Amino acid sequence: MPEITYRDAVIRGIAQEMARDNDVVFLGEDVAKAGGVFKATVGLYEQFGPLRVRDTPISEQAILGAAMGAAMTGLKPIAEIMFSDFFAVCFDYIANEFPKSRYMSNGQTKCPLVVRTGNGAGSRFGAQHSQSVENWCMMIPGLKVVAPSSPVDVIGLLAAAVRDPDPVIFLEHKSLYATKGEVPDGEIVDRLGTAKIVRPGRDATILALALMVPRAVEAAERLKAEHGIDCEVIDVRSLVPLDTQTILASVAKTHRLFTVEENPRLCGWGAEIVSIVADEAFYDLDGPPVRITTPHIPLPAADILEDMVLPTAERIVETVRRSLQS
Amino acid sequence: MPEITYRDAVIRGIAQEMARDNDVVFLGEDVAKAGGVFKATVGLYEQFGPLRVRDTPISEQAILGAAMGAAMTGLKPIAEIMFSDFFAVCFDYIANEFPKSRYMSNGQTKCPLVVRTGNGAGSRFGAQHSQSVENWCMMIPGLKVVAPSSPVDVIGLLAAAVRDPDPVIFLEHKSLYATKGEVPDGEIVDRLGTAKIVRPGRDATILALALMVPRAVEAAERLKAEHGIDCEVIDVRSLVPLDTQTILASVAKTHRLFTVEENPRLCGWGAEIVSIVADEAFYDLDGPPVRITTPHIPLPAADILEDMVLPTAERIVETVRRSLQS
Amino acid sequence: MATAQDRAQAPGSGLNDDIGEAKRLAMYRSQLRIREAEQRAYDLFLQNLVKGTSHLSLGQEAVASGFAEAMQKGDLSFCTYRGHAHTLARCVSVEKVLGELMQRDNGLMRGKGGSMHLTSEEHGVMGSYAIIGAHLPIACGAAWRAQYKGDKDVSVCFFGDGTTNIGAFHEALNFAAIWKLPVVFVCENNLYMEYTPIGDVTAVPHPAADRAGSYGLERIIIDGNDADVVYRTAQRAFSRARAGEGPSLIEALTYRHSGHSRADPAKYRPEGELEKWKQRDPIKIYRERLQQFGVSDKVIAEIDASVRQEVDDATETCKAAPMPPADILTTDVYADGGWAWRN
Amino acid sequence: MATAQDRAQAPGSGLNDDIGEAKRLAMYRSQLRIREAEQRAYDLFLQNLVKGTSHLSLGQEAVASGFAEAMQKGDLSFCTYRGHAHTLARCVSVEKVLGELMQRDNGLMRGKGGSMHLTSEEHGVMGSYAIIGAHLPIACGAAWRAQYKGDKDVSVCFFGDGTTNIGAFHEALNFAAIWKLPVVFVCENNLYMEYTPIGDVTAVPHPAADRAGSYGLERIIIDGNDADVVYRTAQRAFSRARAGEGPSLIEALTYRHSGHSRADPAKYRPEGELEKWKQRDPIKIYRERLQQFGVSDKVIAEIDASVRQEVDDATETCKAAPMPPADILTTDVYADGGWAWRN
Ligand SMILES: Cc1ncc(C[n+]2csc(CCOP(=O)(O)OP(=O)(O)O)c2C)c(N)n1
Ligand SMILES: Cc1ncc(C[n+]2csc(CCOP(=O)(O)OP(=O)(O)O)c2C)c(N)n1
Ligand SMILES: [Mg+2]
Ligand SMILES: [Mg+2]
User: Whose CA is nearest to atom 2 of ligand 2?
Assistant: First the structure.
């Protein structure tokens, strides 16, 4: 199968959906003529023209508000917010408008849109351009929240997000843009709300998302090779809807749970899943469920410091080993 | 001891701190001449004058940004955001500016301010004026987050917040403004980061915050009277810093944990505490830790519907009883 | 407040006859319907039958009726929490509005949204928004859809003077201007943001009009208490929008007779202000206008009676209506009709 | 771009001698220091020694130096991610700036903040802000403190043309105007918001100046490449601020010679644009200005040499400097020096 980058998968995913449906339109800052600051939208302007691929001012509220108004009235907009940290300047749409309009109107108002954004650390950009904000979105009722870890998932989940009738927050990891993966030819459409067992195992369940997935897989390989511990690694992929069936089934088999999160410690998706498992599968657990997270601090800029704070394969190995051998 | 309302406690708390320290200034929408939409700042303008108690335009970003700039350079501002739902229009300050400036500047920048806000449901205001957003704040590293449940705690924690050298989010519950409680005369200063055991008990620990505290207490009384179950009720009061010692000590004694949250289900403070307990006190637990929350939906406006979604004493009683008797 | 000069700038003096009797009767009925329904909402609040909050448009009816009368089917209204008037003006029934305020099952959204979120998409009422400024960008988006599809409908976005000081106002105006969107922004300047005089918190005398230049737009200030003036202004803005000439920003001078929201006694008003504005009550102005144009007292009385009948009937129906049932609590969070966030 | 008329409006032609030699030599040195340090940052980036992102002010030095020279001790600078120039202009050492860009322990914030967040409170540099628009309200707050305390210091807030389209700009300007705050807003109009020409996304030709009227402020456009013009404009604005006459909004026309950020080759520039602006290079203009005023080539050469020496020395020091130690990772989250969110 041909290999493409995660970045090119974004382009291909958007192009696939725009080619299929004229109602799909795309807007954001520097996304059109310039092809995006991460070069993840190069060529779309040329392919779909200035009416469907549009540069905007630095007006994040206008971007998301316009996307919503268009979605309510018949289009299927994809809006880019350049860095997920900037959700904070347009959070009203994410927290109060998109997710509540259908409910408040007793089902009258629709909101089929996708917000794409560059999420996560690793680029030495410092505290205001490196955050993992998936929990900012997961905590809001009425959204759907997706974070792919591989090129093929980027295309499939993006297609599913665009075709979904609800507002979907689509978190692309900045440190994955340059990574490669195999992608089949032809149309790819995945399903929201499905986790993926990326490495089966019997001794412990490790849940991970986005950039943490390859690290969890690496840790699992080392745990097996070096310590004989056989971990099941699950790529959560979709925080809302959440595939609790796959997660609970895995814990029922392995009896141990570890979550690997990039977002800071408090109130992350790890806490949510640990709480679900502790409540619903308490008697399946042979030991404490453990969260591996970034510490609850702002992110430092310096490479040497940034590399210390994000969960690493090393830290996953150590945490799982110590927990299982204690 | 004299009884005063939670609303009057807010006024008294602010007045206490403004009288004590000339650097304390107060700003917000309709807070000065009009005394606030919840009448929780009546008389401050008259007492402290137009230079210290200031009405602003509808510009929440300007309000919080100005508070920050003043705090950085020597004042101790108290800023009011009328409804906590409006944090979404000024979230950049809450998520990206207040909590990160000291860290990013390697300790140079200070930010001693308080953001007061009306939080929570019960007024039939609908989905955009009723939210409990304590988790929006707790998830952000660098903030402190407080939510008092009684008049005396309002004064003491507000004083502690104003005197604290870090940014503090102070969540007043709208449905508590009219409630009364005993308050001693004279200066009252409490400590952030301390939970309060409001009812000691042996059979289960119930954690609650703000409006959920009286409901948890009522539930505990009924559980005792009707089912012989003796619950310890802890008012968490301060989400950050979090008094995990008091919580873990209680669970070590009772072996069961219930959290009662008003915020919607996913990624709430309940999930955080359940995860801490499940990790650190797993072997103390005799059964699954259980979260009692508002369901993960936008809030309905109608009284009859709103009353169904918030956790009630009834629901707490039923949940605890069923869990302990199963 | 409108200077003599501002008034002179308003298109149409209200005396020539480009509007015609049918439209005029419709605008009279529309304004009266709002007046009576809002007054009833207030009475029902005093009886503890309207719950939650509510923000009445008593005194501001001419803006709602004038704009609605100029709208065509397909044109879209975006309102604030002070949205009853605009909802009624698009011909949503009084029953559905009062039902929602009374939080009954017959309400427009069966009690799920409440007074601040009236929505009736079938009437072109695309929602009432309770976070100041939020709907201005949303209206841009709806206008973008019309532009993209080549449709001729216009998005009309109503908001208050206080709303001109929030960031979203600025972003939306610039965005609409550069994309030449068919959207009309209507600032109902009623002199107050809640309890604070707008002049105390705004750097310019005319909060909307004095900012039009920032977006390359014309400075438009009109008498918002004269439905004819409003109607003509609306028509001009709509023609521009439909012709692809882009957005308009209109500042309509008006005044609310009631408090900001249901519990506000409005003690902050300077003495005599309310009385002065009541002399320019839009209903009074318009009743006189009809008389000037030779409409008989009998015709007027018939309209009055039929409006009162509708409001009375609606009141009775609502009082008898059941509360919303528990099973709607978790419906319509997602498009599948439910609320499942997990499998 | 500046029309002839706009230039004519600029205070001072640069030829009369109200500025004086000492100030002129200081402004020359300041601009050159920024030029050399920024160029070095770029070279070090190519050597992979500057990490993360960085946004250079090559070509925009006159704005930074002209304003800084007019500032007094106690005046406060609020910068963006494009803040090296303004930080250096307030006399922060080149070593500390390059150290931060190289993410070394000798950096201004020991690597914790990075290129986009340069802060040196002892020099009055109250932070560099990477979220567009965020620091405009913050600068208002600092100015509020000065006003409240009766201090005479001014807050000066620098930002780009693209920043005029975000909501916080509007809120801050209105807020500063109604409270008459001693804050000076400086828009460095370098024609681009990142890669998009500002004209493509802005409803008015002058993104800042054409909006001044919305806040009751004077429309001020100046040649931002002439440090004398900048200096005189700054002085006038600061006097106003110190006299309690409120804020100013200044649009300084300039151009960045480099890309938006370190990796941008700036292919979006129309042909010839960069060359045209390089003819108006602020360093070139100012070197000629010194010569016009009779400063000898020797004096100029001495300054050039000493600036280069400082930058060379700083480079070597930074290259030899250690990386930040692990133990600072969790310091200074809270005022107690630590990060404990629990007991
Ligand atoms: C972002 C935000 N801030 C504050 C409020 C509270 N609030 C509701 S109405 C209002 C005043 C609005 O004044 P104006 O825009 O003049 O409209 P009017 O009520 O006069 O119709 C305020 C401050 C809000 N709903 N949203
Ligand atoms: C809220 C927000 N949106 C977008 C960005 C990304 N961004 C960084 S710089 C920039 C362009 C800013 O242009 P301008 O204000 O003209 O300043 P310049 O870079 O030209 O100095 C953009 C869009 C950001 N940092 N913050
Ligand atoms: Mg108003
Ligand atoms: Mg620029």
Answer: D132
**In DSSP terms, which residues pair with B170 in a beta bridge?**
B116, B146
CATH number at residue C61: 3.40.50.970
Identify all chain C residues contacting B302, using CB atoms and an 8 Å cutoff.
51, 103-104, 107, 110-112, 114, 323-324
For the entire predicted model, the pTM comes to 0.97
Interface membership of A86 toward D (CB under 8 Å): yes
> Cα dist. D246→D181, D183, D214, D250 in Å?
5, 7, 15, 13
Q: How many domains does chain D have?
A: 1
Pick the CATH number of B196-325 from 3.90.1150.200, 3.30.300.30, 3.40.50.920, 3.40.50.1240: 3.40.50.920
Ligand 3: distance of its center to the CA of C161 in Å? Answer: 5
Show which residues of A are catalytic.
60, 129
> Which amino acid is present at B35?
G
Ligand 1: centre distance to CA C54 (Å): 13
Please list the residue range(s) of chain B that carry CATH number 3.40.50.920: 196-325
Task: Identify all chain D residues contacting A301, using CB atoms and an 8 Å cutoff.
Answer: 52, 103, 111-117
Q: Compute the nearest-CA separation of C326 from chain D (Å).
A: 40
> β-pairing, B238-240 with B144-146?
antiparallel
D30: Cβ below 6 Å to ligand 2? no
Tell me which residue range forms the domain holding D135: 20-261+294-321
Catalytic residue list contains B60: yes
Neighbours of ion ligand 4 (CB under 5 A): D 160-162, 190, 192
CA of C260 to the centre of ligand 3 (A): 8
Given a cut of 50, the residues of chain B with pLDDT beneath it are none
Quote the DSSP letter at residue D11: S
Query: What does the pLDDT read at residue C8?
Result: 37
Instruction: Flag residues of chain D having pLDDT under 50.
Output: 1-14
Structure tokens at A64: 């998301």
Tell me the ipTM for this assembly: 0.98
**Torsion, CA C301, CA C303, CA C306, CA C312, rounded to 10:** -80
Structure tokens at A18: 């725009």
Structural domain contains residue D311: yes
Determine the residue of chain A that is closest to D166 in CA distance. A59
C-alpha distance from B132 to closest chain C C-alpha (Å)? 16
Q: How far is CA D239 from the centre of its chain?
A: 20
C18: left (phi over 0), alpha (psi -120 to 50) or beta: alpha
More confident residue, C16 or A324: A324
pLDDT at C16: 55
- Tell me which architecture the domain covering B3-182 has in CATH: 3-Layer(aba) Sandwich (3.40)
Q: Percent of chain C scored above 70 by pLDDT?
A: 95
- The beta-carbon neighbor of B124 closest among C51, C162, C166 is C51
Of B129, B134, B261, B262, catalytic: B129
- Helix ranges (DSSP H) in A164-211: none
Q: Provide the 8-state DSSP code for C122.
A: G
Identify whether the C-beta of residue B22 lies closer than 8 Å to the C-beta of residue B162. no
What tens-digit pLDDT sequence spans chain A (326 residues)? 899 999 999 999 999 999 999 999 999 999 999 999 999 999 999 999 999 999 999 999 999 999 999 999 999 999 999 999 999 999 999 999 999 999 999 999 999 999 999 999 999 999 999 999 999 999 999 999 999 999 999 999 999 999 999 999 999 999 999 999 999 999 999 999 999 999 999 999 999 999 999 999 999 999 999 999 999 999 999 999 999 999 999 999 999 999 999 999 999 999 999 999 999 999 999 999 999 999 999 999 999 999 999 999 999 999 999 999 87
Q: Which of B57, A317, B306, B65 is nearest to C166 (CA)?
A: B57
Question: Among C114, C167, C324, whose Cβ lies nearest the Cβ of B125?
Answer: C114
Chain B residues within 8 A of D76 when measuring between CB atoms: 73
